[in-house]
Amino acid sequence: MVKEIERAGIPVVHVATVVPISLTIGANRIVPAIGIPYPLGDPHLGEEGDKKLRRKIVERALKALQTEVEEQTVFEG
């Protein structure tokens, strides 16, 4: 699905808990998530810490959307 949306000219970011799977399916822009039960946060960090972590991941994904890529790219922290 990710590749088809990209083919239509719409950039896509795949926020993934298992990056090797994203690489296997051919996603172009990959942002690593935290973990399977909580991909965009960590409730063990408390409310403030969790909010900061989620914001960091979303900001990384927005930056990835704005970045031209020629090949699969993993946007690490």
From TrEMBL:
GO terms for molecular function: oxidoreductase activity, acting on X-H and Y-H to form an X-Y bond, with a disulfide as acceptor. Keywords: Oxidoreductase, Selenocysteine. InterPro entries: Various_sel_PB (IPR010187). This is Selenoprotein B, glycine/betaine/sarcosine/D-proline reductase family.
